[in-house]
Amino acid sequence: MKVTFLGCGDGFSLEQGHNSALLTFAGTNLCIDFPESNHLGLHQLGMQLNQIENLFITHLHEDHINGLQKLALFHKVYPGQTKPKLYVPTGLKADLWQCLRHGLELTTRGKREFEDYFDIICVDHEFEIAGIRFELVQTLHVPDMLSYGLLCKPYFYFSGDTRFDESYILSIADEVQTIYYECHLQNDQLPSHTSLEELLTLPDAIQAKMMLMHYVDDYVHAAAREQFHAEYTLRIAEPLSGYEGE
Q1: pTM, rounded to two decimals
Q2: What are the backbone angles phi and psi of residue 110, rounded to the nearest 5°?
Q3: Exposure of 223 by Cβ count < 10 A (0-12 exposed, 13-18 middle, 19+ buried)?
Q4: Going by DSSP bridges, is the β-strand pair 148-152/156-158 parallel, antiparallel, or unpaired?
Q5: pLDDT of 65-123, one tens digit each?
Q6: How far apart are CA 221 and CA 224, in angstroms?
Q7: With helix as H, strand as E and coil as C, how does 217-235 read?
Q8: Smallest Cα–Cα separation from 181: which of 189, 168, 191?
């Protein structure tokens, strides 16, 4: 399995795209979240929007879903072989359509529904693509907001947006090769996100497995990442870089 970050940035990133990962495996792909900045990221990888075959949405903050309208319309204008499959946590489906419908429902050929654009698979606990199993993990992002990460053993855990969840990290650390975990990398404490200070309390062996994402633009340049890597065991994901087998 190859994991390529189409963007690594937080919700206010200008230079590196919003956080989203493209997984390629077994002749297919899965995109985790779909911000608008993915269009440029895919273009830079030599891909078109209609080459995305599967999508998973972690939660409904706009920097994670604001490219779905464009993706849906592109598939209608330049269709691929099939509609993209949209794996969506059951509790998010209705609200996700409310976010998207204002640009998708009314067309020159009449009203359209959510299912006209995507093959929607509502997920409660897990789903499978090409023999690879993905487990939903409810995360601690914003109180009363549904948000999820993905566990894909033995490959990775992808946290999505979350506060620090030490007990869960410790429980799965031995079961995966890589832990993709959000970290804002700012000096301030942000109540809905994870700080570097918190991650540094983890055992060194677990820190060595971690790849940080959803961070501020201060670390987008190679020199800043290299300085960070010289000081810490933790690694920082790089936009448009692919991580094989991780």
Answers
A1: 0.97
A2: 105, -175
A3: exposed
A4: antiparallel
A5: 999 999 999 998 887 678 999 999 999 999 999 999 999 999 999 999 999 999 999 99
A6: 6
A7: HHHCCHHHHHHHHHHCCCE
A8: 168
